[in-house]
Amino acid sequence: MKSSAFQPLILIVLGLLWFLKSSALLPDTTTLLALLLAASGVVLLVVDGLTKSTVVTAPMLMYAGVAVYLFDEDKLRLSHMLSLGMILLGLLMLIARSERIPERRQRHIAGND
Known about the structure:
Strand content: under 5%
Keywords: Membrane, Transmembrane, Transmembrane helix
Order of helices and strands: HHHH
Structural class: mainly alpha
């Protein structure tokens, strides 16, 4: 029986993060959060495809990443960030109501052609 690769992988990731932080190569926490939010929106679209759920969630994650970064860099006030987010969320919710956008991604099962 093979042992799990979870512990070695955790050690590698933690060691890498520690090295990057101690050598000042890791971006600050806010920038890292902004990048992770934006990247998670892109990954969600790639993995789940275009559905009623992802047409709202993925762009909002990307917007949150951009907004956090701009807010941290003092380029966007909190009231502007929230009001623009509300407008974007409303528009995306209206787009998601379209009948052209599927409810769920159609899963193709091999062998059932």
